[in-house]
Amino acid sequence: MGKQPNPRQLADNEAKAFARHMRISPQKLNLLAQLIRGEEASKALATLSFSQRRVAGEVKKLLQAAIANAENNHQLDVDRLYVKEATVGRAFVLKRFRARARGRVGRIQKQFSNMTIVVREREETA
């Protein structure tokens, strides 16, 4: 018996990679996502390579995973890939406290994020 497999939610010329529990706030991670959204895959990799942000290396690894999924699992042409979607979502928040003056506390929130990158193969222009 068992359940029927879910139908593929992406188009045939798309591939995706998903990273969970990245130790950065979604607001800061979304700044990197905006940089690569809509770019050619090779140009997005170059942009992330020279970015000064701390988490740029993790985002670059995620983009490389999406490109590898496109090449190995879906037989797409790597040279024609571009970043179709780069979405960021909230994961969980670690709540910590710091002692402050006169018996008060300062709340510290350590936020985590999830990120999804979808790459798509451009159609051939005739």
Describe the model:
- This protein has 126 residues and is an alpha+beta fold.
- It has one domain: Ribosomal Protein L22, Chain A, CATH 3.90.470.
- The chain is built from three helices and three strands.
- The protein has helices at 26-36, 41-49, 56-72, and strands spanning 14-22, 81-99, 105-121.
- A three-stranded antiparallel β-sheet has the order 1-3-2.
- Helix 2 packs antiparallel against helix 3 (56-72).
- The protein is flat.
The name CATH uses for the topology is Ribosomal Protein L22, Chain A
The number of helical elements comes to 3
The CATH H-level homologous superfamily: Ribosomal protein L22/L17
Instruction: Please indicate the percent range of residues in DSSP E strands (runs of 2 or more).
Output: 35-45%
- Note the main sheet: 3 strands, antiparallel
> What is the correct CATH architecture?
Alpha-Beta Complex
Q: What ranges have pLDDT less than 50 throughout 5 or more consecutive residues?
A: none
Number of strands: 3
What's the gyration radius in Å?
19 Å
Keywords:
126 residues, 29% helix, Ribosomal Protein L22, Chain A, three-stranded antiparallel β-sheet, 36% strand, alpha+beta, 3 strands, 3 helices
